[in-house]
Design goal:
The complex is a heterodimer of chains A (about 200) and B (about 450).
Chain A lengths: L2 H27 L5 E5 L2 E5 L8 H8 L4 E11 L5 E13 L6 E5 L5 E6 L1 H10 L3 E2 L9 E9 L7 E2 L2 E2 L1 H9 L8 E5 L12
Antiparallel strand pairs in A: 1-2, 2-7, 3-4, 3-8, 4-5, 5-6, 8-11, 9-10
Chain B lengths: L3 H16 L30 E7 L9 H10 L6 H15 L3 E8 L5 E9 L5 E11 L3 E12 L2 E10 L6 E12 L6 E13 L2 H8 L12 E16 L2 E14 L7 E17 L5 E13 L9 E13 L3 E14 L20 H4 L6 E11 L2 E11 L8 E10 L9 E9 L7 E6 L2
Parallel strand pairs in B: 1-3
Antiparallel strand pairs in B: 2-3, 4-5, 4-19, 5-6, 6-7, 7-8, 8-9, 9-10, 10-11, 11-12, 12-13, 13-14, 14-15, 15-16, 16-17, 17-18, 18-19
Helix pairs in contact in B: 2-3
Classes of the chains: A alpha+beta (about 200), B mainly beta (about 450).
Chain lengths: ~200, ~450
């Protein structure tokens, strides 16, 4: 091996090592899971790695259909199986064919809605509207958060004049997903109420 | 796109609901964004737009019931309600026995209007059995078609058993097999192939006329016992809804005395068609079906018979919730020596109803002029037909007929118009009513 070749090999090796180190640092520092946060007296979550306005659901939206999504946020304490709080919501998303913007309706509380959103904003708005009262969570114990999202059949009866039917949503999430159904899930690292940032 | 109209809409819907306490206060992180209530009737933001048109993808025509067509007509001009569109697609899926029927909304020509495209997925290789038409004429007998159709991917296969005493001078029984496929995804070009195999029979008056010395010189062939047709074609959507079809027809006529050599009637086939429906102001709807066809049998195709056949037709229909008017006009001419199946005839279950074509002209003619007016009030129908079939150089003798009947989509017969009518030939000296009954014709 000539000195020149040896030098080239060292440069390549160093570059590969530097790239690997950079990726490792990025993977550790960039939040990709479920991120809990305090907002007033509520616990909310952000999920920067999850994008549910994609694939088949997005194609249906671009065709002008309204697509419902069911959300379940579970908080466990001590271990991941000890569920202490749960929030269930259905959001119906549609895509304005003229304005090319998304609209979201929360099928509860007399249909709270948001219009003229980008895809990312629509996803964030859904997550912002899933709340668990912080007072219902045990302080001083490690907590785990898990978020599950499923695209729903629009014909699934859920809302009535008296509001959302939580029993139906619980049943939906107790069943395995169907092959034609889009679904996503993400978990948080262990956290404590006192340790998460208030935003 | 924020229009003043939409901002007014938002202002007018948010304020009253907020006063009632029905809209929760926005969260601090979303306070900057716009919050509003969608129409209570629909969670789809597109429900605020008006439906401008409803069409099928691939420029396909589907046989739908009159009530389904009525539902489509009602939806045009209404708001794009998801429930209503879901109900329509569900109904179409049931009627067509399709695997799936979905709708797609697209921007309309007008602001705040949308076009609805309905996609029918008949994939899965399921076979659809139906009776596209069935009729009875007390003088001519039964005409009917039984059909099996299946769709495999973009390929549509159709097999028909046909008995026809109506549309030709000959009475035929046989089968028709068709293959059709969209070449482009948009459906702007379709290619097809059709095979027909028919056994032919003739009325005694036709056979007598063929044997007589007064047989017209324009008749290109005598009686044939069977005929076979091979017809490749291509259809182009020039500008929706104007289509142009071009093809070749290789028709083999096997003479009745089997010892006589068969003859060929090979022709270039052209047809131009315009078919459009409109929903106007109020309940009214209009439909125009116009076309021109030209068949040219030329020596270039090694034909035994050389001729040119022109036929133009126009049908206009106006219907409201209770009344309807339909006007039909037809004109045709044949030059050269055409075989019997190409010659024009009047006096059957749809043209010059009440007359018997075998009494009018048992060999048909090479000239045609025809008109018809039908008025309907609810289920009642009254019609007046007039027209003439004659041979070039012979005097044109106009015949007229009138009739009364009922027509509707009735219960189990929803899938197409049902007609029961009594037709009377006029100026014949005596009245011999003809009973006509049928559906989908």
């Amino acid at each position: 091996m000539t000195p020149l070749a040896h030098g080239r090999g060292s440069v390549v090796t160093r570059a590969v090592l530097a790239l690997s180190l950079g990726l490792a640092v990025w993977a550790v520092t960039v939040p990709t899971g479920l991120l809990p946060r305090r907002s007033g007296g509520d616990l909310r979550v952000a999920a920067p790695s999850i994008h549910f306005l994609t694939g088949k659901s997005l194609a249906r939206l671009h065709d002008g259909a309204a697509v419902p999504f069911d959300f379940q946020l579970i908080i466990a304490s001590g271990s991941k199986t000890n569920v202490v709080a749960r929030a269930l919501e259905r959001f119906t998303v549609s895509y304005d064919v003229w304005e090319e913007k998304f609209s979201v309706v929360r099928v509860r509380d007399f249909r709270r809605s948001q219009m003229r959103l980008s895809a990312a904003s629509a996803e964030s708005w859904c997550l912002d509207n899933i709340v668990i009262p912080a007072a219902s969570l045990p302080a001083g114990q490690p907590l785990y958060a898990r978020l599950e999202i499923r695209s729903a059949e629009s014909k699934t009866p859920l809302a009535s004049d008296s509001g959302i039917n939580l029993t139906t949503l619980i049943e939906i999430f107790s069943r395995p997903t169907r092959p034609e159904q889009d679904h996503w899930s993400v978990e948080s690292a262990p956290f404590q109420l006192a340790g998460i940032a208030a935003k | 796109m924020f229009s003043a109209t939409k901002l007014l809409f938002l202002a007018s819907t948010v304020a009253p609901l907020a006063l009632l306490g029905q809209t929760p206060q926005p969260d601090p992180e979303t306070a900057a964004a716009e919050t509003a209530s969608l129409p209570d009737s629909d969670l789809n933001i597109n429900s605020r737009y008006t439906i401008e048109s409803i069409t099928f993808t691939g420029r396909r025509d589907y046989k739908l019931s009159t009530s389904a067509l009525e539902e489509i007509r009602r939806l045009i001009g209404a708001k794009a309600s998801s429930d209503a569109l879901d109900s329509l697609t569900s109904r179409i899926r049931d009627e067509l026995r399709a695997h799936a029927v979905t709708f797609k909304l697209m921007r309309g020509e007008q602001p705040d209007a949308v076009r609805v495209l309905i996609q029918v997925d008949r994939a899965g290789g399921s076979v659809d059995a139906s009776i596209p038409n069935l009729s009875y004429n007390s003088q001519l007998g039964i005409t009917g078609t039984g059909q099996l159709a299946t769709t495999i991917g973009p390929n549509v296969f159709t097999f028909q058993m046909v008995r026809d005493t109506d549309n030709f001078i000959e009475r035929l029984v046989g089968l028709r097999a068709k293959y059709e496929r969209a070449v482009l995804a948009s459906g702007r070009i379709r290619i097809g192939f059709e095979f027909d195999g028919f056994q032919d029979q003739y009325a005694p008056t036709t056979l007598a006329a063929l044997a007589s010395s007064s047989r017209p010189s324009s008749l290109g062939a005598g009686a044939y016992g069977s005929r076979l047709n091979y017809e490749p074609s291509a259809t182009f959507v020039i500008a929706e809804p104007l289509t142009y079809t071009v093809g070749l027809s290789f028709e083999q006529l096997n003479s009745l005395p089997s010892s006589v050599r068969s003859q060929m009637a090979n022709a270039v086939v052209n047809s131009l068609r315009y078919h459009q429906r409109w929903s106007g102001v109020g309940d009214g709807a209009q439909e125009v079906d116009a076309g021109y066809s030209l068949r040219t049998a030329t020596a270039l195709l090694a034909t035994s018979l050389a001729y040119t056949r022109h036929l133009a037709h126009l049908k206009y229909n106006y219907s409201s919730r209770t009344q309807s008017v339909e006007v039909t006009l037809m004109a045709g001419a044949i030059y050269g020596q055409a075989p019997l199946f190409e010659r024009f005839a009047l006096g059957d279950s749809t043209l010059l109803r009440g007359w018997n074509k075998y009494q009018l002209d048992p060999l048909g003619g090479n000239r045609l002029a025809y008109g018809s007016v039908t008025y309907g009030y609810r289920m009642m129908r009254v019609f007046f037909d007039t027209g003439s079939v004659w041979d070039e150089g012979q005097p044109m003798e106009v015949k007229e007929s009138a009739g009364v009947g009922i027509s509707s989509g009735l219960g189990v017969l929803q899938k197409g118009a049902f007609l029961l009518a009594m037709a009377f030939p006029l100026r014949q000296g005596h009245v011999t009513p003809v009973l006509i009954a049928g559906m989908n014709f």
